[in-house]
Description:
The complex is a heterodimer of chains A (114) and B (112). By secondary structure, chain A is mostly beta strands. In chain A, 0% of the residues lie in helices and 49% in strands. Chain A has strands at 3-7, 10-12, 18-25, 34-39, 45-51, 58-60, 68-73, 78-83, 92-98, 108-112. A 6-stranded mixed sheet of chain A has the order 2-10-9-4-5-6, with no helix packed on it. Chain A has a 4-stranded antiparallel sheet with strand order 1-3-8-7, with no helix packed on it. Chain B is mostly beta strands and 112 residues long. Chain B is built from no helices and 11 strands. Chain B has strands at residues 4-7, 10-13, 19-25, 38-43, 50-54, 58-59, 67-72, 75-80, 89-95, 102-103, 107-111. In chain B, strands 2, 4, 5, 6, 9, 10 and 11 form a 7-stranded mixed sheet that branches. Chain B is globular. Chain A binds chain B through residues 35, 44-47, 50, 59-62, 95, 100-102, 104-107, and chain B through 39, 41, 43, 48-51, 54, 60-61, 92, 94, 96, 99-106.
Amino acid sequence: xxxxxxxxxxxxKPGSSLKLSCVASGFTFSSYGMHWIRQAxxxxxxxxxxxxxxxxxxxxxxxxxxxxxxxxDNSKNTLYLEMNSLRSEDTAMYYCSIGSVDxxxxxxxxxxxx
Amino acid sequence: xxxxxxxxxILSATIxxxxxxxxxxxxxxxxxxxxxxxxxxxxxxxxxxxRLIYLVSNLGSGVPNRFSGSGSGTDFTLKISGVEAxxxxxxYCMQATHAPPTFGSGTKLEIK
Lengths: 114, 112
């Protein structure tokens, strides 16, 4: 059974940093690209980052470029999202998803507020 | 970025009724590899999105066959043939042909 479990969210102040993790199981993690997608409260879905299976390519939405970094450790079956210079508009549920977007995690909440 | 326009934004249906949701793209979603990377998702209240349809018309694993997808180029449709109570939630289309991937604004399906 494919499972994606996010962690690392919480309440932080504007300008702070946070690192999210997504632990994968039930499939060959090292063979798949992975996404981070977020959803602000009561809003729609926003794609924010993609990393290739071998970390050779990374892509970001303009809204997070230069502040967020996607990475992975295939030996640990884990995807990461390092978030710096957080803003109130980054408040959202953050989901990790397999490249084919057929499996999603349960999401982790990030709240940026003073 | 590619803009996906979903209509309607709210849909009210009775059990057993057939309904359709439209997703129109600001650019053709036909990729140079011949595929059209258009997906449909359902997000039930309090849950993560679930992929229903991939590559315009292919049913996801475990998805009931009352769901179907069609379209080409810039115009796409999700049809539910016989709405059931468990179908309530918000439906999103998503394109991954052009970087960055983008989502439609969503269609909320309410059960009368």
